């Protein structure tokens, strides 16, 4: 079986799981602002919590291209559950890549099996996700550090048992794997958000919270590298989940336009409805290819994967918002009612344009990376050489 066929089979497997175990509960997650108790055990039973982990840590060694298909299908069924997979994966990724042997032994198998959930604690009330503006302090004290500060908008913070916490210590960024049970750590639920309402957001308060030095990930001064690598994982996951939202919008719109009659004809016969459907179809196809391209680059350790992940997240999240807008328009007044899922999709899509770097951050970063490449080519080219060929940023594909 070739790679393309294998990916199609895996995506079909993920779709069957999502339809049976995730989609039926999506509206309940949204309404109650909580993920139902059966969800994590079900994900763990199928090996979907952190499947990229090596088998020695009870993972499946799943490649990122396949992981993207999993997160697309879960996002298609419920963005809140996809958010859980994202942040849990970010924590596992950080510990796998930067953790000590002791930290890996303590956490990774437990994360893969769902005995513990993980979350990333970077965002703060006064800094958002600006890692350079982090105010949480880690003051050296005896055999470790004392943490003081607050982290806000922590996805699945209400459930997580371990947090990857970014702080600063004596002017250097540091990252720790902090046990939820650590004295001095308080977790408060946050509610009333626009979308992904079941993602169980939390505010973390560190009040003289002691962590041993062995809980540091990497070394002093390495905290931003740990955070950025985790955020890169999250950016790819959100991009794929955004494709799932757009696909769900198309699914709902096709069904509604097929059965609904207006002005003596089914909606599907109206040309402006066809135009909106066409826009959705083309956006989804393009976004999915961009995500697959980024996933393949990550797997291949291609240096271009950073920019291409930004491109995928930018395009897929804005495509999800366009698809949601069109889906609500096709549904008319019904699209503004919680009786129809497109109302939820629109709220969830808006969140995708904010998390793991807003649309505007994606734009400035992508442009900045492209100018860096332009400067590199200009320096490398002889003075009399012909103009350089255009960047391949928009040309990469599987």
How many helices does DSSP assign? 11
Give me the side-by-side strand order of the main sheet.
1-4-5-8
CATH topology of the largest domain: Butyryl-CoA Dehydrogenase, subunit A, domain 3
Structural class: alpha+beta
Which stretches are low in confidence, meaning pLDDT under 50 for 5 or more residues running? 394-398
Strand content: 5-15%
CATH superfamily (homologous) name of the largest domain: Butyryl-CoA Dehydrogenase, subunit A, domain 3
What's the main sheet like? 4 strands, mixed
Shape: globular
Rg for CA atoms? 22 Å
Q: What's the architecture of the largest domain, going by CATH?
A: Up-down Bundle
Distance between the termini: 17 Å
Order of helices and strands: HHHHHHEEEEEEEEHEEHHHH
Number-wise, the strands total 10
CATH class wording of the largest domain:
Mainly Alpha
How much helicity do the residues have?
40-55%
**What is the residue-averaged pLDDT?**
95
Please indicate the count of domains: 3
């Amino acid at each position: 079986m070739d790679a393309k066929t294998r990916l199609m089979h895996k995506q079909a497997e993920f779709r069957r799981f999502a339809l049976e175990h995730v989609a039926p509960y999506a509206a309940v997650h949204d309404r109650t602002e909580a993920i139902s108790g059966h969800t994590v055990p079900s994900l763990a039973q199928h090996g979907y919590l952190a499947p990229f982990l090596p088998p020695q840590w009870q993972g499946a060694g799943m490649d990122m291209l396949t992981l993207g298909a999993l997160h697309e299908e879960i996002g298609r069924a419920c963005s809140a559950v996809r958010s859980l997979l994202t942040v849990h994966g970010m924590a596992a990724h950080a510990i796998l890549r930067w953790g000590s042997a002791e930290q890996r032994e303590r956490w990774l198998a437990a994360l893969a099996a769902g005995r513990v959930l993980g979350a990333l604690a970077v965002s703060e009330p006064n800094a958002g996700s600006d890692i350079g503006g982090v105010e949480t302090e880690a003051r050296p004290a005896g055999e470790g550090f004392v943490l003081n500060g607050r982290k806000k908008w922590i996805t699945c913070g209400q459930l997580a048992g371990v947090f990857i916490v970014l702080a600063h210590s004596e002017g250097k960024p540091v990252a720790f794997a902090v046990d939820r049970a650590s004295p001095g750590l308080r977790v408060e639920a946050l509610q009333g958000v626009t979308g992904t309402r079941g993602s169980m957001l939390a505010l973390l308060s560190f009040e003289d919270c002691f962590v041993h030095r062995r809980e540091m990930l990497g070394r002093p001064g390495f905290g931003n590298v740990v955070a950025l690598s985790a955020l890169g994982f999250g950016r790819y996951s959100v991009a794929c989940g955004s494709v799932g939202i757009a696909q769900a919008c198309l699914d709902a719109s096709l069904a509604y336009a097929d059965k609904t009659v207006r002005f003596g004809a089914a909606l599907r016969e109206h040309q402006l409805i066809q135009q909106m459907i066409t826009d959705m179809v083309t956006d989804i196809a393009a976004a999915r290819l961009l995500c697959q391209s980024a996933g393949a680059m990550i797997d291949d350790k291609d240096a271009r994967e950073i920019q291409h992940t930004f491109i995928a997240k930018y395009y897929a999240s804005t495509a999800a918002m366009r698809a949601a807008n069109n889906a609500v328009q096709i549904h008319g007044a019904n699209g503004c009612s919680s009786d129809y899922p497109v109302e939820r999709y629109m709220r969830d899509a808006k969140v995708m344009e904010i998390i793991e770097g807003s649309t505007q951050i994606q734009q400035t970063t992508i442009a900045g990376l492209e100018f860096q490449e332009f400067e590199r080519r200009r320096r490398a080219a002889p003075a009399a050489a012909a103009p350089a060929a255009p960047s391949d940023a928009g040309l990469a594909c599987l």
